[in-house]
Write a structure and sequence with these properties.
Number of strands: 9
Radius of gyration: 18 Å
Order of helices and strands: EHEEEHEEEEEH
Helix content: 25-40%
Length: 176
């Protein structure tokens, strides 16, 4: 993620993938991708913090300042309220290997790539939420952002490309 121009905008994109077959391999690949971009953001935040450590607050220039909205989690809704929350790819794979992705009620992947940008005390929050929801016959991907950021556009595009690699099965419930 390099520093590119971003302009203020309201982005609220929703994609319906209800005709895909959500298998363990493809969901694992999607979780792995989301975990990688989240860790990349954390690294950029840490580098920005280190770069600005030497300056007084009014002279700090932030490209990726930590926001409390930053998070990555995978929520597995199991049968009989046996729910599991994974905070990274390795925890998710541990849940998969434990058989927790068999016969679930659903899976939600939440990638929140919020950060602050600006100079001194004049910083603005850039909100970027990517949510992938897998429920029987209701599979969606949504992105909500308050800036048109080329880096976040690439993440949205890449997630859509991953969804397009899932096997498709048209049925009487969903035919596209």
């Amino acid at each position: 993620m390099d520093e590119n121009f971003s302009s203020q905008a309201v982005i609220n994109n929703e994609f319906d993938y209800s005709n895909i077959v959500p298998n363990v391999e493809m969901i694992s690949y999607l979780v792995q991708y989301c975990d990688q971009v989240y860790k990349q953001l954390i690294k950029l935040v840490e580098e920005d913090e280190e770069k600005n450590k030497q300056f007084k607050s009014e002279y700090k220039e932030w490209n990726y300042k930590k926001s409390y909205g930053q998070q990555f989690k995978v929520f597995i809704r199991g049968k009989n309220y046996n729910n599991i929350t994974c905070k990274d790819y390795s925890q998710f794979m541990s849940a998969v290997n434990g058989g927790n992705l068999n016969a679930t009620n659903g899976v939600d992947i939440k990638l929140c790539m919020d950060f602050f940008r600006g100079k001194g005390e004049n910083i603005v929050e850039h909100e970027n939420s990517f949510t992938m929801s897998f429920k029987p016959y209701d599979i969606t991907f949504t992105r909500k952002s308050n800036y048109n950021d080329p880096n976040m556009n690439k993440i949205e595009e890449q997630i859509n490309l991953i969804f397009k690699q899932f096997p498709v099965a048209n049925s009487i419930f969903c035919n596209k």
